Amino acid sequence: MPKSYLVRTELERILSTLGEGDTVPPERELAARFEVSRETVRQALHELLVEGRIERRGRGTVVSQPKLTQPLSLKSYTEGALSQGRVPARLLVTWEDVIGDDELCEELGLPPGSTVMHLERVLLADGERIGLESTYLPKSRFGEFTETFDPGTSLYAAIRASGVEFASATERIETVLASPREAGLLESTTAMPMLLLHRRTLDTEGVPIERVRALYRGDRIAFVATLRE
Q: What is the pLDDT of residue 217?
C-alpha cells in the first residue's frame, strides 16, 4: 500500500480530532511522526487540500469549514447559501452590452446580432470567493436592469420581481482547470480542479431567460440533486 495513502489515513484521523480553523501540524513534524519523507507528507496534504478538507492560511495549514452544498434547482445562489447559514455576497467584475454571436442568440431565442447584457460576478460565501458567474440576458427583455438592478444582490429575485416566472433549466457540469485570469479572480491556482456549470433557463412560456457559465472552486463547493422516478 502506498505510503502516501497510509499517511493520508492518519491525517484524516488527526483532522477528525480538530475543529474548523485549527492548525494542522507542520510537514516536518508529521514526517517525523510517521517516519516518512516530507515529500510523502506533502503529497497527502495536497490531496486533502484539493478536496477542501484543509486550506493554506499564511505560512500554515488549517482545517477548512465544510463545503457549501448548492442544490441543482431553480433556486438562486442566495437562497442556497442562506439555507446553510452562510452569508452570500457578490463582487461585480463586468457589466456590459455585447452583440451576441449566432450560438448565443439562438440559445436566448433572439435574432442574430441582437444586443445581449453580460453580467460577470464573483460569488462569495462568508467573505470567501467560491465562484465566478457569467450571465447573459436579452437586452430587449431586461434592459431596465441597467438602471434598477444592484449587482450585489440576487439576480433571480430581480427577474422574479419583474414578473418573469422560472419554469425549467438545462444544466451541464464538468471538471476543468481555471485560466490564469479566472484563478486570480477566485484567489485560487490554475492547478486547482474547478466545476464548470452551463445553464439555459426558460420561463413558463418556454421563452429563454438566460444563459449562464459559472465556474466554482472544487475545494469549496459541492452540488446535490434530488432524483425522482
A: 93
C-alpha span between 210 and 45 (Å, rounded): 40
CATH code linked to domain 3-63: 1.10.10.10
DSSP string, 96-139: EEEE--HHHHHHTT--TT-EEEEEEEEEEETTEEEEEEEEEEEH
Of 64, 69, 43, which is closest to residue 53 (Cα–Cα)?
A: 64
Which fold would CATH assign to domain 68-224?
A: Chorismate lyase (3.40.1410)
Q: What is the torsion angle, in degrees rounded to the nearest 10, for the CA atoms of residue 64, residue 42, residue 217 and residue 88? A: 20
Torsion sign (Cα): 176, 177, 183, 187: positive
> Which SS3 state, helix, strand or coil, does residue 189 take?
coil
Q: Where are the domains of the chain?
A: 3-63, 68-224
pLDDT of residue 2 exceeding 80: no
Residue 86, burial from CB neighbour count under 10 angstroms (0-12, 13-18, 19+)? buried
pLDDT band at 5 (very low <50, low <70, confident <90, very high): confident
pLDDT of residue 75: 77
Please give the grid coordinates belonging to residue 19.
Answer: 475543529
Helix, strand, coil tally for the chain in percent (to 5): 30, 35, 35
177 near 190, Cβ under 8 Å?
A: yes
CB 116 within 8 A of CB 104: yes
pLDDT of residue 135: 97
